[in-house]
Write a structure and sequence with these properties.
The chain is mainly beta. Helices cover 7% and strands 36% of the residues. The protein is built from one helix and five strands. The chain has a five-stranded antiparallel sheet with strand order 3-2-1-5-4. A hairpin with a 2-residue loop joins strand 2 and strand 3.
Length: 85
């Protein structure tokens, strides 16, 4: 089974602060705890260190025009493949 983690960060750096998250784990969707201090990861790098692999980096072309807003932060998509019994 594949788990997916969406992390919206404050910049395109893996060490920048996570602003929002959504996780699909064991077939269940969650936005994580209500309090951001209790999210499982505060940076993308923390997720990578915990075994997640980045499968999509932020679209930097979307951030080139400062006069427009294209969404919340810089989106990283990560995956983790696990065998569930």
């Amino acid at each position: 089974m594949q788990d997916i983690l969406y992390l919206h960060a404050s910049s395109n750096s893996p060490t920048s602060k996570v602003l929002a998250m959504r996780i699909i784990e064991k077939g269940e969707i969650s936005d994580g705890p209500e309090n951001p201090d209790n999210w499982p990861y505060q940076t993308v790098l923390e997720a990578i260190r915990d075994g997640w692999s980045v499968i999509k980096f932020p679209e930097l072309a979307l951030s080139m025009d400062e006069s427009r807003t294209y969404g919340l932060g810089f989106e990283f998509i990560l995956e983790r493949k696990e065998v569930y019994r």
